[in-house]
Amino acid sequence: MPGTAAAMATLAVLAMWGTSCSTPPRPPGTPSTGTAPSPPVSSAGITPLPVCFGPMPVAWVRALRARRVTTPGGVRFGPGGIIGGAAIGEFDSAADSGIGKLDFTSGRLTTIFRFPPGTGGMGAMAVEAPWVIWEELDSQTNLNDWSIHLWNLASDAGRVLATSRLRTGHYVSGQQPLPVVRNGFVAWAQPVPSSGRYNTAQIRVADPATGRVVTLDTGRVSSPAYAGPYLVWARIDSAGRYVLRIVDAASFKPVVTPGLLRNPGSILYLAGSPDNLAWGSGDLNTLTVWPVGTARVLKFTQSDSGHPFEFLQLAGHFVLWYTGNGSSVLDLRTGGAFDVAGSVAASAGAIAIEQPVGHPAKGAFVSSRVSILTQAAMPGIRSCAKNT
Questions:
Q1: Residue 26 pLDDT exceeds 80
Q2: Structure pTM?
Q3: How many CA atoms lie less than 13 Å away from 196 in the CB half-sphere?
Q4: Reduced to 3 DSSP states, what percent helix, strand and coil does the chain have, rounded to the nearest 5?
């Protein structure tokens, strides 16, 4: 998730997925025949839940205040991921901008990478020690000009993993990728040239330690997500239907899609965690969550179009997402939700919430108050009228 509202707005301009398809090569070590067992799901059960927004509960206000760091004056920080007791994300000031690390023990903000002049900012980020991966908007005017950067915190060195730039000097069109990382493997949807009427992308997985990259699928595919022991992505098939494709995250061996996930409806955004798989629908007002390995799905609906389910992130039983004007937090147990004026980031067991200190003048930056909460420290959110 981008570290600034401006960068998030650019990501909201998405191209249609493409149609061409080719048989992907198998990753090293993947058997040539057979599939992995289907997850332990035997029947479909849909639980509908309305989403109800209220003010930030007092318990949340207190919890965030107790674990808060304020950045230096005039430096805005938008978290994109969490590693241990630190948040990684984009910093912006009148002097420069780039990727930084905000340590919650010392309160120190250190620079990991400075953006070159003319950079549009961070588009999306994924972190897993020692790796920090971000999609960078390399132009402030051309949305097709982007690159994926890989940084090793241990060696303090990085490189470009992928780019939209073609050998001709032009740029491939398509959705800007939202990279994910699990167990040292980085996955993303790489747009590739297509002669068809739709944009085409490839699901690629890279091993940063060796530099090996494999392609798992090609066509009208979404950005992937790690959920439980699986790597999952959405695809529009030749009949125009949305389907979910699942592989084992360790072997990349195909997994039979559980019955209750075989008709997922339209899918625009995917998110995953060790516990859940979530996707936002084409109308942006429906969120579907599969607790991985169970025989049920949760379907959250809202009537407020001001909270579109975009750029989803999961942490425990909470979903966090960017709405276009700010961010929101939803409790999957109750449907209760609240808004945040700034930006949010999630990891498997923690969340980071940023809120600006005051209202900056146009073109200026103000400091950020950033809080990290572990899952154990996250208060519940009561449903609807009880959200106090």
A1: no
A2: 0.88
A3: 15
A4: 5, 45, 50
Residue 15 has pLDDT above 60, yes or no: no
Residue tagged 């509960």 (tokens):
57
Nearest alpha carbon to residue 219 among 204, 236, 241:
236
Cβ atoms of 79 and 89 within 8 Å: the answer is yes
> What is the CB-side half-sphere exposure of residue 129 using CA atoms within 13 A?
9
Q: Which residue has the tokens 């600006």?
A: 356
Number of domains in the chain: 1
Better-predicted residue by pLDDT, 143 or 6:
143
pLDDT tens for 148-192 read 999 999 999 999 999 999 999 999 999 899 999 999 999 999 999
- C-alpha distance from residue 268 to each of 159, 235, 242, 264 (Å): 29, 10, 10, 11
**CATH number, domain containing residue 347:** 2.120.10.30
What sign has the CA pseudo-torsion 236, 177, 292, 249? positive
Closest CA to 87 of 346, 355, 276: 346
Q: Is residue 381 part of a domain?
A: no
Residue 288's domain comprises 5-22+49-360
User: How many Cβ atoms are within 10 Å of 130's Cβ, its own excluded?
Assistant: 14
Cα distance between residue 356 and residue 325, in whole Å: 13
Does 32 reside within a domain?
Answer: no
Q: Which residues pair with 151 in a beta bridge?
A: 132, 158
CB 384: neighbour CB atoms within 10 A? 14
Does residue 325 carry a pLDDT above 80? yes
Structure tokens at 198: 């739709």
- The token pair at 239 is 């009949």
Cα separation of 373 and 388, whole Å? 20
What is the pLDDT at residue 340? 95
Beta strand pairing status for 52-54 and 336-340? parallel
- The answer to whether position 281 is within a domain reads yes
Residue 346 domain flag: yes
- 359 by Cβ neighbours in 10 Å (0-12 / 13-18 / 19+) ranks as exposed
Distances in Å between the Cα of 216 and the Cα atoms of 96, 202, 206, 249 are: 38, 7, 11, 12
Q: What is the pLDDT of residues 202-259, one digit of tens each?
A: 999 999 999 999 999 999 999 999 999 999 999 999 999 999 999 999 999 999 999 9
CA 222 to CA 189: how far, in whole Å? 7
